[in-house]
Design goal:
Purple Acid Phosphatase, chain A, domain 2; nine-stranded mixed sheet; 5 helices; globular
Amino acid sequence: MTFASFVFAGIPMRAFADGALFLPECSTLVVADMHLEKASNFATRGSLLPPYDSRATLQRLARCIDRLRPERVICLGDSFHDGGGPNRMEPEDLGRLRRLTDGRDWVWIAGNHDPMDTGFAGGRIAPHTEVRTLVFRHEAETDTAPGEVSGHFHPKASITVRGRRVSGRCFVMDGRRLILPSFGAFTGGLDVLHPAVRDLMDPLFQIHLIGRDRVHSVNSAMLDQPRQR
């Protein structure tokens, strides 16, 4: 699995092409915005979608854990798409999730979609958590000290490489904050040049863009403008 290596708030990190962040010195894996059971939520409202998003997301997460063997896993909120998600999850998928949380320091950061109970799957829930110089929360705060790691925005970006436009999910960072892409199999995204994201960042910020076969590390001056629909 390809990744980009960098240092943020004094901590070495790896941004992987599957959207996961790994802190080797802290043995910590971080993912954001899995939105488990999003498809089943849509189904309750009459939009029939393939009901395999949770399984695909958990399989990807299991591969990360098997590969990296983290002692700690931090999920940065919106891990479920809504409060009823755990009750709609297939028993096989719920069992897979329980096996992943077993024996690890597993932290569910509360998001705006999440159920406020982890008894169904293990781990502990918190509004935020700290590791060394870092604070992990769901949504970036306007006025924050350096070292904030968050999700929420599902950032994406586009660049042109050798005349070819590359678009995808991305990690966004400056000297104060790092925003992770969504990890879920069925999630949309917000372009990093949208004011909701851009206004949080320094004028020149960094992007780790997930392409088809690598992670492209560029600065914001190299980004393509979002296409108008």
